[in-house]
Design brief:
By secondary structure, the protein is mostly helical. The chain has two domains: 3-94, no CATH class; 114-401, no CATH class. Helix content is 62%, strand content 7%. The chain contains 20 helices and five strands. The strands form two sheets. A three-stranded mixed β-sheet has the order 2-4-3, covered by helices on one side. Strands 1-5 form a two-stranded antiparallel sheet. Strand 3 and strand 4 form a beta hairpin. Helix 1 (3-27) packs parallel to helix 4, helix 4 (70-90) packs antiparallel against helix 5 (97-105) and helix 9 crosses helix 11. The protein starts with a helix and ends with a helix.
């Protein structure tokens, strides 16, 4: 990089570190995954913390002069705008969730019509085993039927799933032979699972130490691992940082457009490497029968597709919360449309209370929606390789998918 480029990236890193430090000190949360130069983070940790207004000005200065080629400049500018939007909120500014998400995530989200969920419920009704009770009752019965009895055994099963997911991902894109992906159980985690890239060829999938539905094993491991979050983090760092010197890839502000792409990749991950009923067949032969769980006539792929669509209910619920609707109304909405139980609804409110998560949850459904037609087009594996190795914005995908006029 030239000296002006190096200085710009350093100032961007400092801005992200300062905004995240102010967020951490005021709320206890974090929105930054940082693997950049240690001296930059050490300086940001020790210096007097600038007020939010100063941080907004710093972001504006960065946006005024971005010394890179147009494509890289567009990517970096979108991420500076995201950091600036958080700084504005720290400065007391409040805007509707749609506007906040537009600035942070680079998408145009809105309330989804409930007809989307009605159609998903109809597909779920056809995919679940026949039986009495409501659709919600049948879904929860299916989940219980596939629940692992001894949670301590989950890391070993995750390891088997990781091995298979890596093998299938390697058929699309090369992976290092010496990669190691561990698994740790976390009591009372605010998430079901989280894939964490530690650098080099080492990563860990953290799993909530709670009852786990083994029918979701590949859906979860592909999302968090390969070709999902871990694969994306590792491959982008190897190509963009090590080969091209793009240090911004080590400064990952989470409430930003790149994470809409990441969550979209994660939600498509299982289908990419296990098309059709291949995930269910592998689970039946390698996991479920060994656990004494025989086929029940359900369609895992259809159920998981519905589960993904119902992330849109979370998105709608976030809008309802932003409007100030009472928790009882939002809980009833989640019960009706997302088919959540009481514990799951409590988890939703816990997630929503974390810094930035009211906007971040919009990235799941909309990331999946944006990528779906693009990945369904010819040349899917080429497109997956691009997603795992290039800096791509949601707007890039939507523009590519737009018909020529």
């Amino acid at each position: 990089m030239t000296a002006p480029e190096q200085e710009w990236i350093r100032d961007y890193a400092r801005l992200a570190l300062r905004v995240n430090r102010r967020l951490t000190e005021s709320t206890g949360g974090t929105l930054l995954i940082y693997r950049g130069p240690a001296e930059w983070s050490e300086e940001a940790a020790k210096e007097p913390l600038p007020p939010p207004g100063r941080l907004i000005e710093d972001a504006d200065r960065l946006l005024d002069a971005v010394p890179f080629d147009p494509r890289r400049a567009a990517y970096l500018s979108a991420h500076v705008r995201a950091v600036r939007a958080v700084a504005r909120r720290l400065n007391g500014e409040r805007v509707p969730l749609r506007e906040y998400a537009r600035e942070c995530l680079g998408i145009e989200p809105d309330m989804l019509p409930e007809s989307v969920f009605e159609e998903a419920h109809a597909r779920l009704d056809a995919a679940l085993p026949k039986g009495g009770g409501t659709l919600s009752d049948r879904l929860h019965a299916w989940q219980r039927r596939h629940t692992l009895d001894q949670i301590e055994r989950l890391p070993g099963l995750v390891a088997k799933a990781v091995q298979e997911c890596r093998a299938r991902t390697r058929a699309i894109i090369p992976l290092p032979d010496d990669e190691v992906v561990g698994c740790r159980l976390i009591p009372d985690a605010p998430y079901l699972a989280a894939g964490h890239y530690e650098g080099g060829t080492r990563s860990t999938i953290f799993m909530n130490r709670a009852p786990f539905n083994l029918a979701d094993l590949l859906y979860t491991v592909a999302h968090e691992g390969h070709p999902g979050h871990i694969a994306e983090s590792m491959l982008k760092e190897r190509r963009l940082v090590e080969e091209e010197g793009r240090l911004e890839q080590q400064i990952r502000f989470m409430l930003a457009p790149s994470f809409v792409i990441s969550e979209g990749i994660g939600l498509h991950a299982q289908h990419v490497i296990f098309p059709g009923d291949e995930a269910q067949a592998w689970l039946t032969d390698n996991i479920l029968r060994q656990e004494g769980i025989e086929p029940d006539g359900s369609d895992f792929a259809a159920i998981h597709d519905v589960k993904t669509v119902l992330w849109g209910v979370w998105s709608n619920a976030a809008f309802l919360a932003d409007e100030g609707r009472p928790e009882s109304e939002i809980g009833a909405y989640l019960t009706r449309w997302a088919l959540l139980g009481e514990d799951e609804i409590a988890a939703f409110f816990k997630v929503l209370s974390a810094p930035g998560m009211n906007a971040y949850v919009l990235g799941y459904y909309h990331g999946w929606r944006i990528l779906r037609p693009w990945l369904d087009a010819p040349g899917r594996h080429d497109r997956v390789r691009r997603l795992l190795t290039e800096q791509i914005l949601p707007a890039d995908i939507e523009q590519a998918d737009r018909p020529a006029t």
